[in-house]
Amino acid sequence: MTATLTPAGRADAPASAGRDRRAALPRAVLRLHRTALVVGAVLVGLFTLLLLGSLLWRSAYSPAEVAACGTGSGCPGLNAYETAHTVYWSLLNQSQNVLLLVPLIIAAYAAGPLTARERELGTHHLLWTQSAASPVRWLRSTLALGSVAVAVGAVFLVMVFRTAVAPMEGVWGFGGWEPGGYVGSGPVLVAHCLLGLAFGVCAGTLIGRALPAIFAGVAGTGVLLLAAGVARPWLWPASTLVAPFTRDRKAWPSPGDGAWTADAAVRGQWLVTGDGARIDPESCYTVPGGIEGCGVRAGAETWLVEFHPLSHRLPTQLVESGLVLLLAVLAAGAAFLVLRRRTP
Fold first, then answer.
1. Which domain holds residue 202?
2. Are residues 265 and 126 in the same domain?
3. CA distances (Å), 29 to each of 58, 96, 298, 340, in order?
4. Per residue in 14-42, pLDDT tens?
5. ∠ CA 140-104-56, rounded to 5°
6. Contact 304, 279 (CB under 8 A)
7. What global pTM score does this model have?
8. Residue that wins the pLDDT comparison between 207 and 260
9. Residues 266, 137: one domain?
10. Are 47 and 170 within one domain?
11. Is residue 10 one of the residues assigned to a domain?
12. Nearest CA among 342, 113, 328, 73 for reference residue 225
């Protein structure tokens, strides 16, 4: 009777090797793009330092101290507060514009250095060979790690912006329904950043050349951002205000009437005739008699205002985020489909 001796662990060797290769793939992606991660973290940190630093500087002067100064020009506390408030106001105003550019920057990097550059230089075959990964697995790991990094960074930016804008919410065009304030105050920024990543990866995989892919990724993401802004007022049912049209009420209704508040976003205003026809008041400026004459001749009976109060912002953001994430999934799926057809 003979016995066959098997070296210990030999049976588990293939499974262990497979796990090692799967673990090595994310590490390879991180090493390849570690510079971009560091630069992104530094930029997010700088954004946080400037915005929250200016907020802390402004908060160092209490309202009571500022009020005690009155309007005297020789009061150093008042002058110092005005300087701190000006810096805070300027940085907060510019931050709204910066947040609108973040998805475009992500799309540019995803289209160029993340995907297309490897194909343009021919290094993608070497990467797939050294990492022992198929092209689909390499793209899956790249997209997964990129999505985590982008989502974490975007969530952090939203938290920083919401903290900084809190004292000025709805004042002087900050926050509220302003494009930058709207995007930076909720999940919409995260969704748009993920869309920029997915669209950039799709453009880079499809085109395969860095500069054209960057142009296509940025242009496509920008068009989708503009389309989202145009469709935004129609993503959630609007509140309405109906006011009578009479000779003593010939001017447009104004915020403060009913539930229409100053921080609301107006979707449209019309004159409504007895049979329900809507007349755009702006079309009445070119006719004799202005709005009053136009309304009288058309038989207008009421004003109709459709608007979104600030309470509609969160549900609108959730609907928009869902639609944008759906587009991101479709773009990522298109990238995988193209890659499967082009590689054995």
1. 24-67+76-234+317-342
2. no
3. 42, 32, 67, 20
4. 545 445 555 567 777 788 778 888 999 99
5. 110
6. no
7. 0.84
8. 207
9. no
10. yes
11. no
12. 328
